[in-house]
């Protein structure tokens, strides 16, 4: 055989050995794959790969859209820790039936997938996530093995006089809202999916960071699917640190909603990412702008809460006249002629503000857009436009404003243009405490 032919045969043999090794490592070999060693013929016992486990969760029905986004981050980082021991995936709870979602033409607003609001590809760069519909397809049904219904301890947080983390199975403090049917299945509200049910239900008292759930989830149960209900009871493991920001940066809005916001900015606010220096890289993991690199569009953005929030937080929320006065002063100070207003104010209240503030612009969805994007999508468009303004001022104690603070920090805006809030009427400078600044930690 010629030298060249011999070399080709050797290369082919090495290639086939390499392919076999890859198949072995990836688990493609059967459990009893025959192997050969010099002088020995035997069978290698390879353990079958464990099927991945599913973590589902839900939140107290009264919690709003932006608080639920925060709970997602806690659950995402719990799964991040679970991934160190086993293969877990986070099942995203469908959106719907939120108290503040009243304006959409689609009054039912249930079974809304996360992909309607967020970029799932981006979420999956942090941890594995799937929609509930995909969970049903993967497992073959809407059956959930266990539900852990979180509650506080009856003796309170500080029985010992100091904070201590603990999680224990306990009797239910209150009658469970999930009831057994004639088959012994636990049924209740599962995001509008009447076919969904739980096989085993238990109440769990918890005062802990989310990470403390790793041990009970991996050692106290072999259930393949576990749902943590009232997940807002669990706290962040390290608020404001790297893990927190990794989860938050992965929560990019859907491309369609960003496009709607960008088109509005370009058409009505003379704002583009190129001019505003807010171009984002496709992968959030490599997008790390220095503080102050973002310039923002030539407009002021204001988030003004009204309705029930204004009544319950009257000591921190200005009147319409007080808000208009502050808006005019900031526009003059920042030399801006347009102001974008995000608000839940009534149409009549908006008319009053427009009389007092010139250059006021709002995004007003058509009936078709309300049906298509729903209240959650409209809120995201508002937040996206506010996040790109030259200067932003929000409402004290509002999670809606807080999410905009985060978005602007991720884009690279200066804190002084971001962490601002409207003061209540006759509130002194000392009393009108500005929001805490939380810089991105990479």
Describe the overall structure.
- By secondary structure, the chain is of the alpha/beta class.
- The protein has 2 domains: 53-242, 3-Layer(aba) Sandwich (Rossmann fold), CATH 3.40.50.11340; 254-417, Rossmann fold.
- The chain contains 13 helices and 15 strands.
- The strands form 4 sheets. Strands 5-4-3-11-6-10-7 form a 7-stranded mixed β-sheet, sandwiched between helices. A 4-stranded parallel β-sheet has the order 14-13-12-15, with helices on both faces. The protein has a two-stranded antiparallel ribbon with strand order 1-2.
- Strand 4, helix 3 (120-123) and strand 5 (129-131) form a beta-alpha-beta unit.
- The model is unreliable at 12-47 (pLDDT under 50).
Q: What is the domain tally?
A: 2
Order of helices and strands: HEEEHEHEHEEEEEHEHHHEHHEHEHEH
Strands, count: 15
**Main sheet record:** 7 strands, mixed
Compute the separation of the termini in Å. Answer: 59 Å
Number of helices, where a helix is a run of at least 4 consecutive DSSP H or I residues: 13
Rg is 27 Å
Q: Give the CATH topology of the largest domain.
A: Rossmann fold
Estimate the global geometry from the Cα principal axes: globular
Strand order of the largest sheet: 5-4-3-11-6-10-7
CATH architectural grouping of the largest domain: 3-Layer(aba) Sandwich
Strand content: 15-25%
Helix content class: 25-40%
Which stretches of 5+ consecutive residues score pLDDT under 50? 12-47
What structural category characterises the helix and strand content? alpha/beta
CATH class of the largest domain: Alpha Beta
Average residue-wise pLDDT: 89
